[in-house]
């Protein structure tokens, strides 16, 4: 069962991020206020004789809701991080953590959490290697939830053992309307403490700050 620190797996955005998972981890509150200001201004200034298309408006409203959820989620995670001193995250050792940081893939499938846009007609899972280079892309279809990633190319060849991260692209009408990071589960084997706060080390390799962990679950 996923522990109570679970937050939304992804943040809605209408502009594509840089390849290799170049997403910002902070500033969701500022993004929320900026989006609210921009949306209000757009509603005030749009031409009443040529109003915004209903589909575009629905996309913007869904984006607004996603940013709001992430802002609240980040605030909650900050509160958790403040309560998770050395004793707190040390208790996470042995659990599976969900993170968007690169995680190790070997002989066992990875569990991913995907949350595409609810208006998407096509959803693609994009895989990046440790250098941030795209190495695989596959159609996964609409719908939110967990999927097992087997690490195969289009030809069915297994990708090399290594660290991988993931994004989910939502497409509609031939245009990408959202690009989000997909969280992957990895086993925590060590907790480290330094100037940047608590850091968790994962089985096989890879690590993430405690603030980058969005869910915990008991090993499956």
Automatic annotation (TrEMBL):
The FlgD/Vpr Ig-like domain, residue ranges: 104-173
InterPro entries noted in UniProt: FlgD, FlgD/Vpr_Ig-like
Record-linked Gene3D superfamilies: 2.60.40.4070
Keyword match rRNA-binding: no
Keyword Aminoacyl-tRNA synthetase: no
Region spans: Disordered: 1-24
Keywords: Bacterial flagellum biogenesis, Cell projection, Cilium, Flagellum
Protein origin, superkingdom: Bacteria
Record's compositionally biased regions (Low complexity): 1-18
Family note: Belongs to the FlgD family.
Function: Required for flagellar hook formation. May act as a scaffolding protein.
Name of the protein described by the UniProt record: Basal-body rod modification protein FlgD
Organism from which the protein derives: Paracoccus rhizosphaerae
Lineage: Bacteria, Pseudomonadati, Pseudomonadota, Alphaproteobacteria, Rhodobacterales
């Amino acid at each position: 069962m996923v522990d109570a620190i679970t937050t939304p797996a992804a943040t809605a955005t209408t502009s594509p991020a840089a390849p290799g998972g170049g997403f910002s981890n902070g500033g969701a509150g500022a993004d929320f206020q900026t989006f609210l200001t921009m949306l209000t201004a757009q509603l005030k200034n749009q031409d009443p004789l040529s109003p915004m298309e209903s589909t575009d408006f629905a996309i913007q409203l869904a984006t607004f809701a996603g940013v709001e959820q992430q802002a609240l989620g980040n605030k909650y995670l900050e509160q958790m991080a403040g309560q998770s001193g050395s004793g707190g995250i040390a208790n996470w050792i042995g659990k599976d953590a969900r993170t968007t940081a690169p995680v190790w893939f070997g002989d066992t499938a990875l569990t991913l959490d995907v949350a595409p846009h609810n208006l998407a007609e096509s959803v693609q899972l994009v895989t990046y290697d440790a250098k941030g280079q795209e190495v695989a892309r596959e159609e996964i279809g609409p719908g939110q939830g967990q999927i097992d990633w087997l690490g195969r190319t289009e030809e069915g060849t297994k990708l090399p053992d290594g660290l991988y991260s993931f994004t989910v692209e939502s497409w509609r009408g031939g245009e990408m309307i959202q690009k989000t990071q997909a969280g992957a589960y990895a086993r925590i084997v060590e907790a480290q403490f330094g100037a940047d706060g608590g850091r968790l080390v994962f089985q096989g390799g890879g690590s993430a700050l405690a603030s980058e962990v969005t869910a915990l679950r008991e090993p499956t």
